[in-house]
């Protein structure tokens, strides 16, 4: 039987050794982001006439879902809305200038701070680590709501960074280690698929919200093999046609009318934001097909008569680095 070859403890060990960002790296990256934030706070306090408001660590590191392959971190800078709404190009140029000014006395050269797609990227020469600084346009400086420029489309969407982090912390409380670990395993699976098919679309946020939906529906994530089975089974049986939303920060009646989007999964902060609104039906079917293959591999591994066969099955899910 399969449990003589692949068990929860084996998946756990693989995740610790290969999938997860090492604890010492998490600490280093957080410290790097915190130093940036502190430097910017110092600059803001010294120049209160500027429109820079505050800065938050964002993305997978503060969420606790970062992978070992991480080479950049995300930071959100809240900017007070001005009377003259700037274009994105003007906004990013302005932000680049302010960041260069803020960090010129901190040993960071101007050429290390460059405009990228919908953000300004700071690259550290020693570690090679990149920090993507994204502007959030804040209409009300007394709240943490603001408009973020979506990196993939350039569309401005309402967000709230602290509430996004609180959303994942609330689910972490239910299953302190396992919820975020399953998210990391799903991200690793999607990464493996993308390595072989650059057209495969499955953003990290999609994996996070599907896991949150399953957790909220009463699915346990304490056994990683069963959690992965539940995840792939849900995709296959629902065909991703179920409308998914969360009522942490809004009520169901705030959702928009049914749209023509192939998948509808709503941001837990902003009910107007379907996070996969631009996924096509072909994208949806590709995700279902990949889930079918992953579930078949798990089932086949259960009844593998040799260690080698079980290994081959799990490598279909996680790639060639999987071993035990």
In short:
Helices cover 47% and strands 13% of the residues.
Task: Give your account of this protein's structure.
- This protein is 47% helix and 13% strand.
- It is of the alpha+beta class.
- It has two domains: 2-17 and 165-318, Poly(a)-polymerase, middle domain; 21-160, Beta Polymerase, domain 2, CATH 3.30.460.90.
- Strands 1, 2, 3, 4, 5, 6 and 7 form a seven-stranded mixed sheet that branches.
- The radius of gyration is 21 Å and the shape is globular.
- The relative contact order is 0.12.
- The mean pLDDT is 91.
List the topology elements.
Elements (H helix, E strand, L loop, with lengths): L7 H12 L3 H24 L5 E7 L1 H4 L8 E9 L7 H16 L9 E4 L2 E5 L6 E9 L7 E4 L6 E4 L1 H14 L3 H19 L7 H13 L7 H15 L42 H22 L4 H12 L6
Parallel strand pairs: 2-5
Antiparallel strand pairs: 1-2, 3-4, 4-5, 5-6, 6-7
Helix pairs in contact: 6-7, 8-9, 9-10
Q: Estimate the global geometry from the Cα principal axes.
A: globular
- DSSP summary, beta strand count: 7
Q: What is the typical, i.e. mean, pLDDT?
A: 91
CATH fold group of the largest domain: Poly(a)-polymerase, middle domain
Describe the biggest sheet? 7 strands, mixed
Overall tally of structural domains: 2
The second-level CATH architecture of the largest domain is Orthogonal Bundle
The assigned structural class equals alpha+beta
Order of helices and strands: HHEHEHEEEEEHHHHHH
Please tell me how large the radius of gyration is: 21 Å
Q: What percent of residues adopt helix (DSSP H or I)?
A: 40-55%
In quaternary terms, these chains amount to single chain
Could you tell me the strand content as a percent range? 5-15%
Instruction: Please mark out the parts with pLDDT under 50 across 5 or more consecutive residues, or reply none.
Output: none
- First CA to last CA: what distance? 16 Å
The CATH homologous superfamily of the largest domain is called: 2'-5'-oligoadenylate synthetase 1, domain 2
Write down the CATH class of the largest domain: Mainly Alpha
Tally of individual helices: 10
């Amino acid at each position: 039987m399969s449990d003589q070859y692949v068990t929860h403890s084996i998946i756990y060990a693989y995740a610790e050794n290969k999938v997860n960002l090492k604890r010492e790296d998490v600490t280093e990256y957080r410290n790097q982001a915190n130093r940036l934030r502190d430097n910017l706070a110092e600059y803001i306090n010294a120049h209160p006439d500027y429109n820079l408001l505050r800065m938050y660590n964002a993305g997978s590191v503060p969420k606790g879902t970062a992978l070992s392959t991480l080479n950049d971190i995300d930071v959100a800078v809240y900017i007070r809305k001005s009377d003259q709404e700037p274009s994105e190009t003007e906004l990013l140029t302005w932000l680049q200038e302010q960041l260069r000014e803020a960090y010129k006395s901190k040993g960071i050269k101007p050429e290390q701070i460059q405009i990228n797609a919908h953000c300004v990227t700071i690259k550290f020469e020693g570690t090679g680590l990149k920090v993507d600084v994204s502007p959030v346009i804040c209409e009300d400086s007394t709240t943490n709501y603001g408009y973020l420029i979506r990196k993939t489309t350039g569309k401005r969407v309402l967000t709230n960074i602290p509430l996004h982090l609180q959303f994942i912390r609330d689910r972490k409380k239910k299953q302190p280690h396992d919820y975020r670990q399953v998210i990391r395993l799903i991200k690793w699976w999607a990464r493996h698929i993308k390595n072989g098919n650059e057209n495969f679309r499955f953003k990290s946020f999609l994996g996070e919200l599907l896991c949150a939906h399953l957790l909220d529906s009463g699915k346990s994530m304490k056994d990683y093999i069963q959690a992965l089975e539940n995840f792939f089974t849900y995709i296959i049986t629902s065909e991703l046609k179920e409308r998914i939303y969360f009522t942490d920060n809004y009520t169901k009646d705030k959702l928009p009318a049914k749209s023509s989007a192939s998948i509808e999964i709503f941001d837990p902060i902003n009910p107007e934001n379907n996070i996969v609104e631009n996924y096509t039906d072909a994208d949806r079917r590709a995700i279902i097909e990949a889930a079918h293959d992953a579930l078949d591999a798990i089932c086949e591994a259960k009844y593998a008569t040799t260690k080698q066969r079980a290994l081959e099955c799990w490598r279909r899910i996680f790639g060639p680095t999987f071993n035990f």
